[in-house]
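A note on notation is needed here, since sequence and fold are reported together in a single record. The reader may check this reading against the record printed directly beneath this paragraph.
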Amino acid sequence: MNESDAIIFVVDDDAAMRRSLAYLFDSAGWQVQTFESARDFLQRYEGHAPGCLLLDVRMPLMSGLELQQELVRHAVALPVIFLSGHGDLAMAVQTMKAGACDFLEKPCKDQVLLDAVSRAVARSVEESRSAASTNTAQAALATLTAREREVALLMAEGKASKVIARELGISDKTVQVHRHNTMEKLGLHSAAEVARLLMAGGEI
């Protein structure tokens, strides 16, 4: 995942504002998708690419705040920037508590907005990379048997085969077989590499 893969999603019921923002982000080299309503966004958003969501607060049918709440309920980790002409402190606090990256008032200087988007995209790309790394690690660890996973966890603690054998109540030779199978399945060569993979997979 790179920032060049990122998409800026603009949700605003004002067509002129959507065109203006699309032009700004396009001229800055970003990929842009625009939506006239929150429901339009929910119907079309595929959830694959990193990026950020630039969101108006007050819109018909579903407000920006309601859309943010919907994304939180569905654990959509897309950074949100609110851009509103009707902002107040209480509203800004509410959106930030719900996880928004920023709350900007219209009219907003182009550079201020571009800087906010850059920060949000950098966060999204990092989260996407982390999620991809976790998924890859979990998929690899899923190939292990329950006993191999136990051995892997004890290997990650730096324990020798004889110690692992004693703790698991099995023979040293059996531990050696499990170690070999674990390394072969994971494509690793050391206990330190096993430890890193277990950490990436959220096992330790």
